[in-house]
Amino acid sequence: MNSVASSRKNKSPFGRSGYSFGSVQRVWWALLGFATLFLSESVRASDRWETLEAIHWVENPNNDPAPGAHGELGAYQFRRSTWTTYTRKPFEYARERQHADEVAVMHYEWLKRGFTDAGMEPTPYRIALAWNAGLSSVLRGRVPRASHDYATRVTNIVESLKLRTANAAQQ
User: Fold this and answer.
1) Are 115 and 121 in contact (CB under 8 A)?
2) CB-based burial of residue 68 (10 Å sphere; 0-12 exposed, 13-18 middle, 19+ buried)?
3) CA-CA to 48 of 20 to 30 Å: which in 89, 113, 130, 160?
């Protein structure tokens, strides 16, 4: 082997000032971290949409304008006290999907923050459980069986929606 060939033997293809394995690895991990952060944000937004749609399907699948047994209204069957926590709009606006969706997103985000602040992952099951039984009841671990059944139904619909979305994306 001549001296020129042997001097190039251990050099990076980019020359002496080329990238070492360590610097490439750091760039790779930084890009992977960014992608994970970006994807987890879109996954969280997707979880929100799917969870709220599932709650709607369980609460009021036919968009019945009649009040519920305890005076609840709209797609998400809001109680007056929950509605007025998030908006100054008249409670009767809960019957209109656009207004109901706005309040639902705010309530979802409040529940999510409550779980995060308590050190608990805000899963669709927990969100649905708190939607039905109240956040404080869930955090205390004092939730009726009917609320667990409700959360299971919502979670099953969420999983079905995710599967449907994944299948549509593959086609």
Assistant:
1) yes
2) middle
3) 89
143 belongs to a structural domain: yes
Are the C-beta atoms of 97 and 63 separated by less than 8 Å? yes
**Eight-class DSSP state of 96:** S
Q: Is 87 exposed, middle or buried (0-12, 13-18, 19+ CB in 10 A)?
A: middle
Range of the domain at 134: 44-170
Q: Confidence class of residue 149 from pLDDT cuts 50, 70 and 90?
A: very high
Establish if 20 belongs to a structural domain.
no
Six-digit token pair at 137?
């009841």
Which tokens belong to 97? Answer: 């999907």
For 41-73, the pLDDT digits (tens) are 444 567 999 999 999 999 999 999 999 999 999
Sign of CA dihedral 43, 45, 51, 54: negative
CA pair distance 78, 85, nearest whole angstrom: 11
Q: Tell me how far apart the terminal alpha carbons of the chain are, to the nearest angstrom.
A: 55
Answer whether residue 140 is part of any domain: yes
Q: Is 73 helix (H, G, I), strand (E, B) or coil?
A: strand
Domain count, the chain: 1
* Residue 47 CB contacts under 8 Å (≥ 6 apart), including other chains: 124, 158
Q: To which H or E segment does residue 122 belong? A: none
Q: Is residue 25 part of a domain?
A: no
